[in-house]
Predict the 3D structure of the following.
Amino acid sequence: MILTIDVGNTDTVFDFYNGDDLVRSWRLPTKPYKTKVDFLESLQEIKTKIDGIIMACVVPKVRHELIDACTEIFGVKPIAIGDDDVKIDLDIKIDLPKTLGADRIANSIGALTKCGGKVIVVDFGTATTFSIVGARRDYLGGAIMPGINSAIKGLHESAAMLPLYQIEKPNKVIATCLKDGLHSGIFYGTLGAVSFMLSKMKKELDDNYRVVATGGLGRFFAEYTDVIGEYDPHLTTFGLLQIYNFNK
């Protein structure tokens, strides 16, 4: 069994795979940032026999703490995207390839495996990211915009009268109270921005690209627009699994 770990800015996801089959998924808040001791205590809950571990981490503060904890708990040292000896079967065609986030690399590999290329991955996380993968295992570029919860937090911190809240789909666009106004602006604003970005990207690509959504809030938006073809909540860790297999 292989353990894949996706360390995001909001949550850390631990997915266990037997072959290509996901057998267990477990989620842990990334913040407050944890020490090795914190991870050791938390990981006791999912301690089991595994054959290998691979990680994508976009939070440098916890990378080595988690690697050390996993090595002690599972008896296996994780490999991580970004390590010099970890090979990536992806031609990254951007100006500075090493600046591409580990999660976006994993998303791209996952999409290539499942869709065969010519796909745009929209990851609804702390940031909403767009990753474009061509037909020749090539990463062509993408875009980054603020994530939904980041936008809500930003409004709350910048405007004294605006509360924190959980995003919901409003019944109508034109709101008649503060709560509905926030829901309408964030929900339909995000939906409109994503739809517009995808439309512009497809025009620039001048080709027929599939669109796959992933990330914690991906399902929430995918069901309300026809510009997103499908939602895969475990695309990132599935991509990590493929990278592990490629290296082993």
